[in-house]
Amino acid sequence: MEEGSLRLVLIAAGLLLLNGLLAGAEFALSRVRPRQIDDLVKEGRRGAARVQAILADLDGYLFSCQIAILLLILLLGGIAVVPGGLLVRGYLLALGYPPNGFNYFPLLPGAFGSVLAFFTMAASQVLVGYLLPRALAQKYTLATCLWLAWLVCQGHRLLADRMVEPGVTRR
């Protein structure tokens, strides 16, 4: 695998992991009971006060999570489809397929590779970016909230400050 291709695979894996973390946090935050968090704040548990602040403006934080997830999905699509097509085309040429070259259908291997990359990324997105994080967040709701609250706060700070209309004051 070429260095550029390996770099794209690593970037895609990182984006997919970040997407899964945000999806798990979104599900856990919408599922956690505020009373549990209040008890943890009284105990002085690390991260509980941050989760309590998130729950005070849950709709805003969930909206930021959903926008971040959407942006990550779009980035993943851009990273996977075109380079994936070029990667598959290069492998086919290296294997000597087809024997006459691509004289009649020069775009076919690239298109095949792009479609293959798209479906691979879509399947990865569904499994790693949605189903697995949701199952883990459902099983470990409280721990997920406490561990991922910082990430959700950073994403909200990054996105919400840019989405507020000028002249509107934030709480």
Describe this structure in words.
With 171 residues, the chain is mainly alpha-helical. Helix content is 82%, strand content 0%. The chain has 6 helices and no strands. α1 (3-31) runs parallel beside α5 (108-139), α4 packs antiparallel against α5 (108-139) and α4 (58-94) packs across α6. The longest helix is centred in the middle third of the chain and has 37 residues, at 58-94. It is elongated, with a radius of gyration of 21 Å. 27% of the residues are buried.
The overall strand count is: 0
Largest beta-sheet characterization: none
Mean pLDDT across all residues, rounded? 83
Please compute the radius of gyration using only Cα atoms: 21 Å
Terminal residue distance:
50 Å
Label the overall shape: elongated
Structural class of the secondary elements?
A: mainly alpha
Question: How helix-rich are the residues, as a percent range?
Answer: over 70%
Q: Give, in order, the helices and strands.
A: HHHHHH
Segments where pLDDT lies below 50 for 5+ residues?
none
* Total helical segments: 6
Strand residue content: under 5%
